[in-house]
């Protein structure tokens, strides 16, 4: 069973600010990944200036949306509505938001 574990190396750094977090979201997006709960606490800014994700709980491949369990989809949309949307760079916001809301059709009813 040990081989089935995900292990992440320790990464030194600081919590990024809003603009740096947006840069991290954009970098993920250009690598075909999306994050449902983008916020500074889910990223780390390395000494090199690179902003890397450290919480992969709601990270998913853009092209793999159909394979996500419905409850996970609901959580992604819920976190996005709660505030994640404010960390999406303007140049990808329309496409990003459309993809997020396509995950859970009843998203307008989530509070």
Describe this structure in words.
The protein is of the alpha+beta class and 111 residues long. It has one domain: Transferase(Phosphotransferase), domain 1. The chain has 3 helices and 4 strands. The chain has helices at residues 18-30, 70-82, 90-103; strands at residues 33-35, 43-45, 51-53, 59-61. The strands form 2 sheets. A two-stranded antiparallel ribbon has the order 1-4. Strands 2-3 form a two-stranded antiparallel ribbon. Strand 2 and strand 3 (51-53) form a beta hairpin. The mean pLDDT is 85.
How is the topology of this model organized?
Blueprint: H1 18-30, E1 33-35, E2 43-45, E3 51-53, E4 59-61, H2 70-82, H3 90-103
Antiparallel strand pairs: 1-4, 2-3
